[in-house]
Amino acid sequence: MAHTEHAHDHGHEPLVIEDDAGNLEGLHLIEAVQAVLARKGLISAGEIMLEIQAIEAPGRHLGARIVARAWSDPAYKQRLLENGKNGAAELGIKVGEAQLEVVENAPGVHNLVVCTLCSCYPRSILGQPPSWYISKAYRARAVREPARVLEEFGVDLPEGTVIRVHDSNADLRYLVLPERPKGTEGMSEEALAELVTRDSMIGVARLGTEAASSSQTAREPN
Amino acid sequence: MRGYHDIGGNAAGPVPKLELPWLFWEKKVEAIRNLLGDGTRRLISLDELRHGFESFGVEKYKRYSFYRRRLEAVIDTLEVKGVLTRGEVDAELARIRREWEDGESHG
Amino acid sequence: MADGERIPARFQVGERVAVLELNKAGHVRTPHYIRGRAGEIIEFVGYFLNPEDLSVGITSGPVYPLYRVRFLLKDLWPDYARNPGDELCIEVYDHWLASPASESMNSTRAE
User: CB distance from B87 to chain A under 8 Å?
Assistant: First the structure.
């Protein structure tokens, strides 16, 4: 019964995107599932709205707070690297996943996060993954030619930099701790947090020359 | 045996740097799956959901969008567990579509 | 086996390991591209229910050791041309691992 001919898959396009009809069908289908579950007393509309609010809440800002604290407080950074979940909890941020592994960029080391099998992502910190993160191309290539993938994102690593790719395949979720941009000495934690982009915490961006200009600060649509 | 979802290292084209909005129906799929897997219900674990879309066939996997895959896997899993049937979902779907079409033509 | 019983961890941080080709059907979290390859344990993560069980609705039983394992990308991809120090880190459950000595590394890789 599912009419999916409108779900676009343009041959080489590595991401299947619904058109308006596909989105309407998805909406009607999930409403139908909800109605059946509600009739059986398994789930209520109120619970669903609360859960939607809960999953809408995380985003760049949570990860950015963690990063800014780590830049500002070396002892905190050490604890965060040892146990990301506890580190987040210190800031009142609850990690829903089993464990959070914070991986630190440094001169000569660049970390990149991918999930080749599906779409594992630190959702309780960064929210939903971006569309490209769940694309076939990113999942397939990040573990085979990470430097080329990074180039496509505009990241040109210095010669000799070691790339460390993390395939998020099981119970851990990964957050990249980017390098603190030069020229940010003396900035408050709040101001530092504004510099941290979502992409830098996935590892497909580096913070640097644009640090002085807040216009580059990524804002998620959600 | 290599699953069709197991694509690490495969050749592929450029990464499509898309930032699509997260739509309401997609949020609802996630919310309902989360609730079905919570401590009070324990009806679908994340691994069961993945198993669902990793085993429902490559045709569906390639044809469906990310959230549609998850939605189909939720329905399949609930049906296997005897929680609901596709027939029940289809009946509700037909009713919802009728109401939608009535609303469209009258409103 | 009893609920929550811990499958003993057979490997230690720093140890060389090889990933098995278990040819399991169903939901597994060990991607094909690391099977038959050798790497090094970099962290013991903890004990977790086996996703292979969870995926078919078995939510009890023993918990399995999970490690983070590091591979060199040049060991995963014969044609890898960038920095020979580039790495891939991934989580692997104990039952997917063996000592490299007991494994003939390249012959286990089934394409």
Answer: no
Chain C touched by B90 (CB under 8 Å): no
Q: Stretch A151-164: mean pLDDT, rounded?
A: 96
Whether A72 sits among the annotated catalytic residues: the reply is no
Chain B residues near residue C31 by CB distance under 8 angstroms: 6, 8
Reply yes or no on whether the pLDDT at A25 is more than 90.
Answer: yes
Q: Measured between alpha carbons, how far apart are the two ends of chain A, in Å?
A: 32
* Parallel, antiparallel or unpaired: strands C87-93 and C16-19: unpaired
Establish whether A168 is a catalytic residue. no
Residue B52 placed within a domain: yes
Residue-range definition of the domain harbouring residue A52? 1-56
Q: How many domains does chain A have?
A: 2
The pLDDT value recorded for residue A197 is 98
Residue B107 has pLDDT above 80, yes or no: no
Contacts of A161 in chain C (CB under 8 A): 83
Catalytic-labelled residue, pool A44, A118, A131, A214 = A118
The pair phi, psi for residue A175, each rounded to 5°, is: -130, 125
Structural domain that includes position B65 = 24-106
Q: What is the predicted pLDDT for the residue at C102?
A: 64
pLDDT surpasses 60 at A221: no
- Domain shared by A109 and A70, yes or no: yes
Q: Which of residues 33-72 of C touch A (CB under 8 A)?
A: 33, 45-46, 48, 51, 66, 68
**CATH code of B68's domain:** 1.10.472.20
Residues A29 and A111 grouped into a single domain: no
User: Is position A135 annotated as part of the catalytic site?
Assistant: no
Q: Residue A189 and residue A126: Cα distance in Å, rounded?
A: 19
Nearest one of C14, C12, C31, C9 to C22, comparing CA atoms: C31
- A201 and A154 fall within a common domain: yes
Among left, alpha and beta (phi > 0; psi -120 to 50; other), residue A119 is: alpha
Does the beta carbon of B20 lie under 8 angstroms from any beta carbon of chain C?
no
| Closest residue of chain B to A57, computed from CA coordinates | B27
- Please state, in angstroms and rounded to a whole number, the distance separating the CA atoms of residues A78 and A21: 50
Q: Give residues 23 to 82 of B whose Cβ lies within 8 Å of A.
A: 23-32, 34-36, 41, 43, 50, 62-68, 71-72, 74-75, 78
Looking at residue A146, which CATH number applies to its domain?
3.90.330.10
Q: Which two tokens stand for residue A96?
A: 């829903």
| Straight-line distance from the first to the last Cα atom of chain C, in angstroms, rounded to the nearest whole number | 34
C91 forms bridges with which residues in the sheet? C68
